[in-house]
Amino acid sequence: MISVTELLPDEVAHVDGALPLNRLGQSEEDSTYLVAWEDDQPLGHAHIAWSGTQLSLPEIQDVFVLPKHRRRGIATRLTDAAEEKVRERGWTRVSLSVSKDDNPTARRLYTKLGYVDAGIDPVTVSGTILMRGRPFEVDDTLVYLVKPV
């Protein structure tokens, strides 16, 4: 059975050894990691940024499921759990972004889950960013989607 819980401090080493927690280290007040588990094995994660986002809404970011566990509904479970966290904090809408051209699978999933175009122009992100203190090269165009929760 798959469960989704918030990442706890004593779980970080175990989860970080299995999943790419690229946004680890952002302040706890500004972000939340959710982890999908099967027994004691982490299968995927989703990150929620609570502030500093493109649309000034909570933003679901970095949804990831290990390749061998994809197509089992885990990304949907993670997204549902993130939406519930957003509702619990009193928000009425949530946002996320997807690659304009490079991830049609994610775009289909979010459309199926009720996300719609946020009505802003696509945002191009390119250059070097720091993730967990390490440089990471990006070159992508993002489309922002929103959903009432």
SSE blueprint:
Elements: E1 2-6, H1 12-18, E2 31-38, E3 41-49, E4 59-65, H2 74-88, E5 93-99, H3 104-112, E6 116-117, E7 123-131, E8 134-148
Structure keywords:
Aminopeptidase, alpha+beta, 3 helices, 149 residues, 8 strands, eight-stranded mixed β-sheet
Can you give the helix content as a percent range?
10-25%
CATH top level?
Answer: Alpha Beta
Note the total helix count.
3
Structure classification: alpha+beta
Mean pLDDT metric: 92
Number of structurally distinct domains: 1
Span of the ends, CA to CA: 25 Å
Please write the string of helix (H) and strand (E) elements. EHEEEHEHEEE
Describe the structure.
- The protein is of the alpha+beta class and 149 residues long.
- It has a single domain, classed as Gcn5-related N-acetyltransferase (GNAT) (Aminopeptidase).
- 21% of the residues lie in helices and 42% in strands.
- Strands 1, 2, 3, 4, 5, 6, 7 and 8 form an 8-stranded mixed sheet that branches.
- β4 (59-65), α2 (74-88) and β5 form a beta-alpha-beta unit.
- The longest helix has 15 residues, at 74-88.
- The radius of gyration is 15 Å and the shape is globular.
